[in-house]
Write a structure and sequence with these properties.
heterotrimer, A alpha/beta, B alpha+beta, C alpha+beta, A: alpha/beta, 4-stranded parallel sheet, globular, C: 5-stranded antiparallel sheet, elongated
């Protein structure tokens, strides 16, 4: 029987990583072109940069850090929504972890909290239910963010609020979807991405089937990878093998956790409470059709966007003109190509989305690269 | 000393306890004087009169921690150990401390006594005395329970320890496994609902530093890795001494529980605070001897050489992974929040 | 997105739709609302923001690790 510690130690083993790197080197040298791999997910960006995996790869393999960081892709006007909601009398705004660091047009939620707004960063969405019950005289608003991975947890929170009759709990939904983001990246004729590393946990929930359309549409390999360094290296090896063989297939390296169909029970809960939003503006990518979710009309009584609509009349706010996040997300530019990278734009005062969170491409380059 | 000590009958601190009158006198005598008893404090002059001899280190620190009691310590232990350690890190023998309390109205007397008792026991470990102090009580809501400030002076026994004195070739040593205080505080916070055997490393470092001084070894730099953790100390050193510091990730001691917490929330052990773990830069030739002394006299037996000072990448700290890739070890940024993506 | 460390189920609280899981000596209670089938003691699970997302296939994980050992052996000989 496998021990729990083997499940991480085994997938971080230096010898295995070395050997995979050598095999990748050997095989990639036989491939005539460049392999530009987009890791869609911010968690993979983090693994690659933290473990320095890019340093172990040959020159013809490059990573393009994708739009899969839910904090980074949030446009400023949506963060302003959160700040406006938090500034309303008798409101408690609840959101996940490092969302409170991200600056909107008038400051980050952390700054609004310092000015006296009741803003609570939490780790577990169900804590919001406790906060709502403990503060029956207040309106508690859950500012929901995240990709397919985090959406079912919001659905459970809605379900619990409904079942337990917790009527002072409202939602501001910013859940976004991976496939439309891939489409938005690939729609640019200049896009250079020719292989994908598929997200780990998004796939745990949604199943590997989520990427079949992309594989067919763009004729690129998609390998669903785990988050450990060995997972990522093995997935790159599998991509290189596909490139050499000239195939474009959906492959699941993270098979210990990802099935074809995913967690159907979780998907069903999401569908019960949430539906496709016709359009959502992504920071860096602009408006993308059908790329996000919203509450179903039957739950309009919990929709903070509807209930506070008069206050939330905020125009779209674009990033600084010099910011090249859009090009970076599409793989057309590297962070270091951007004129403001590391000068006007730093993790302490980001001008664009990619510098915002530790999963953003520019932030990761700023912190980890260049040794 | 002919002061009659009367125990306050009330169970919580009231505003009148800070008013300078009888209640305040009772509180001070029955709790603080009793626990910290020494002739200088008992003399009750407007200022403590000290006999200092030669170069003296002087430091101050204010302590606010939530929760006030945590696995492995409390704010009292922290307030003494923190200031004593700052003196010890300068090669100074911690002699005298001042101690000021800002207490929120309604604070439980029993908790205050417990905190003061733990201060007394911590003072005993380094033979340090509290010689003056102050007490203020603020209305409910104006402080979070209890804040403590301590300042301390100590005679420098080993001069020339400085952030500016790192030299290429020096070995970097950590006195024990890192991140336990920060992890214990996070564990104790509401909201994370965690359980583990993890305890803060909060400890008085004078006993082990005294042994290092007695061994008459060369110490170029020494600092306790408090807020900002190992990452902050190494970056401060690299910048102050204009050198590069290279550390091997696999050599940095980290307990399983700290690793576990970091894995669960996306923290890095080298960003987490310590309160009884320090870093040294010493000549390579004596490094293993230093590790031996620390492991013999310190609280943890996990001291290790984790890297060396280099004459390149000036001002930067470079971390080498077990498979040979490298990255900058940056200063921790902002408030520690769980990484969600 | 997210954090990858697997956890082991060490206690089950059926009334609350929750389980206690452990990783590297750290225990915490997490929700099992997203699981359609009951969890068992010693199951290995992935956690995301306080919820069990799924069970890890131990046999599959073992096969992967065996494969890596083979690669290592092959390289060394």
């Amino acid at each position: 029987m496998i021990e729990l510690n083997q499940l991480y130690q085994g997938f971080r083993d230096p010898t295995t990583i070395h050997n995979l790197a050598r095999e990748i080197q050997t095989l990639a040298s036989q491939y005539p072109g460049n392999i530009n791999i987009m890791e869609v997910c911010g968690g993979h960006t983090h693994t690659i940069m933290k473990y320095g995996l890019n340093q172990l790869l040959p020159a013809n393999i490059e990573f393009v850090h994708g739009p899969g960081c839910p904090v980074c892709i949030m446009p400023k006007e949506r963060i302003d929504h959160a700040a406006i909601l938090a500034s309303q009398p008798e409101v408690i705004l609840v959101t996940l972890g490092d969302m409170i660091r991200v600056p909107g047009s008038k400051g980050s939620l952390a700054q609004f909290r310092a000015q006296g707004c009741d803003i609570r960063p939490i780790y577990d969405p169900l804590d919001t239910l406790t906060i709502a019950k403990e503060n029956p005289e207040k309106t508690v608003i859950f500012f929901a963010i995240g990709f397919e991975t985090s959406t079912p947890m919001t659905a459970v929170l809605i379900e619990q609020a409904e079942q337990q009759g917790v009527n002072n709990l409202l939602f501001h939904i910013n859940h976004v979807l991976v496939p439309p983001a891939i489409d938005a990246v690939m729609a640019d004729p200049k896009a250079t991405v020719n292989a994908f590393i598929g997200p780990s946990h998004v796939s745990v929930i949604s199943g590997a089937k989520l990427y079949r359309p992309a594989v067919e549409r763009y004729h690129t390999p998609v390998v669903v990878a785990g988050f450990e360094p060995v997972d990522v290296m093995e997935s790159i090896l599998r991509i290189v093998k596909q490139k050499l063989a000239g195939t474009a297939e959906l492959d699941v390296q993270y098979s210990r956790a990802v099935s074809e169909d995913g967690n159907l029970h979780a998907q069903q809960k999401v569908n019960q409470y949430l539906m496709i939003r016709p359009q959502f503006r992504w920071r860096g990518l602009g408006p993308v059709a059908n790329s996000a979710l919203m509450l179903r009309p039957e739950y309009a009584h919990r929709d903070a966007e509807r209930i506070f609509s008069e206050k939330l009349n905020v125009a779209d706010i674009d990033d600084h003109k010099a910011c090249q996040c859009g090009d970076i997300l599409r793989g057309i530019a590297k962070p270091k190509d951007c004129k403001v990278f590391g000068r006007g734009c730093t993790p302490e005062s980001p001008l664009g989305s990619c510098m915002v969170s530790s999963e953003g491409a520019c932030n990761a380059y700023y912190r980890y690269n260049g040794v | 000393m002919s002061v009659e000590i009367k125990l306050p009958t009330e169970k919580a601190v009231q505003l009148s306890h800070g008013g300078g009158g009888k209640e305040m006198n009772n509180l001070i005598k029955s709790i603080f004087f009793k626990a910290f008893a020494n002739p200088i404090l008992a003399s009750e002059e407007d200022a403590a009169v000290l006999n200092l001899d030669g170069p003296t280190a002087f430091t101050t620190d204010s302590f606010t921690v939530s929760p006030l009691f945590f696995a492995g310590g409390d704010i009292g232990k922290l307030a003494v150990a923190g200031t004593v350690n700052d003196l010890a890190m300068m090669g100074a023998e911690p002699q005298y401390l001042s101690c000021s309390f800002i207490i929120e109205e309604g604070f439980a007397i029993a908790s205050l006594k417990q905190i003061v008792a733990s201060m007394a026991s911590e003072l005993h470990k380094s033979g340090t005395r509290v010689v003056c102090g102050d007490t203020k009580v603020v209305p409910k809501g104006c402080a979070d329970g209890l804040f403590i400030n301590t300042s301390g002076v100590g005679r420098i026994l080993k001069p020339h320890i400085s952030v500016n004195h790192l030299q290429p070739g020096d070995a970097i040593i950590v006195s024990g496994d890192i991140g336990r205080h920060g992890a214990a505080i996070l564990m104790a916070r509401e909201g994370l609902n965690l359980e583990s055997d993890l305890r803060s490393d909060c400890a008085n470092l004078w006993p082990v530093v005294e042994q290092l001084i007695a061994a008459n070894i060369t110490i170029h730099a020494m600092r306790d890795a408090t807020r900002g953790g190992l990452a902050a100390v190494l970056n401060e050193w690299a910048q102050a001494s204009k050198v590069g510091i290279s550390v091997a990730e696999s050599q940095i001691p980290v307990s399983d529980e700290v690793k576990g917490l970091c894995e669960l929330y996306g923290f890095e052990p080298h960003d987490l605070a310590n309160e009884g773990t320090f870093i040294l830069a010493v000549p390579q030739t004596i490094a293993s001897g230093v590790v031996e002394i620390i492991n013999r006299y310190g609280d943890s037996q996990t001291a290790a050489i984790i890297g060396q000072v280099e004459d390149n990448h000036h001002g930067k700290v470079i971390l080498t992974t077990p498979w040979g890739s490298t990255r900058y070890l940056d200063l921790p940024q902002g408030e520690l929040l769980p990484r969600i993506c | 997105m997210c954090l990858s460390i697997p956890s082991k189920v060490v206690a089950i609280h059926p009334d609350e739709q929750a389980v206690t899981v452990e990783t590297m000596g750290v225990k915490r209670k997490v929700s099992s609302h997203l699981m359609s089938e009951p969890l068992a003691m010693d199951d290995y699970v992935l956690i995301h923001i306080g919820f069990v997302m799924n069970k890890i296939d131990k046999v599959d994980a073992e096969q992967s690790l065996a494969l890596y050992r083979e690669i290592v052996d092959k390289m060394e000989h």
